[in-house]
Structures are given as structure tokens and as C-alpha cells.
Amino acid sequence: MTPAMRDVAARAAAEAGLGAIVTIRPGFFEQLPMDDESVDVVISNGVVNLAPDKDKVFAEIHRVLRPGGRLYLADVVVQRELKYEVRNSPDLWAACIAGALPESELAGLALASGLRNPMITERFDCFRDTSAEAKVADDLHVQAVNFMARK
After folding, report:
1. 78 within 8 A of 105, measured Cβ to Cβ
2. Domain containing 18: what range?
3. Which of 24, 72, 102, 124 has its CA 20 to 30 A from that of 143?
């Protein structure tokens, strides 16, 4: 997150009456600036698909979550492995498509990290009526999911 994005998030938390219990910190998803087992909830919106080391991201989520803690993730997934040309397209990286996981791998990553009860709670067409819609070929089978798991 940029400083401006952190400011917006902090203002939103304050407006929601959560300013006293929500902390916004700079950091990287592969190396979260949090102590072990210090977090009740991890929320991620469209970030995992941009991470080159998704195993490390899920390991970090597991590390910082308290026992019983929850992960709520919204991200782009595909229904099959993407071709080399797609994975190396700057336009499709910018559209959050080139790094998308096959949906079938999402639960496996969560389980491998030690999280449990992984489940997709919703699927939706996140690119419909957006400027990225033209970049999403029908054969990519791109969609977004809401996903949750527990520690």
C-alpha cells in the first residue's frame, strides 16, 4: 500500500468507528510487520495474485494469525493454468490476471500453510464493464472469488 492508500484506509476505519482497534502498517505480504499469532483477522483484496511467492504469503498469514483467527481473501482466479504469454504480459499483470492462481490451487495453498476449513464463499465476474474486460479473453476463464480459512 502506498502512504496515500494507508491514509484512506485509516480514515475509513475511523469513520466506521474502528480507529481504536484497526492498525494500518506498511509492509510486504511475504514479510508481514506483525508478531507471531498477534492478529485476529487478515483481510486481503486483490493482492495475492500479484505476489510471486504465494506459498510465502500464506505462510506469513498463518504465522501472524492467532489460533482461531480468520483469513478473508478476495482475489482473481482462473480455471486453468495460464499460458506463458499471458503470465509474461505486462498488461495482464497490471490487470491482476497474469499472476492469478488456478482456483483449484487456492485451498491447497491454505491447507499447506496450516490453515483449515478453506472455502470459497462467492464467485463473481470482477471485470465485467471495466476497462480490463477487453484484456480478458473468454478462454482464460477469469473470475474473482471471496475465500476464507481459519487457523
Report:
1. no
2. 1-30
3. 24
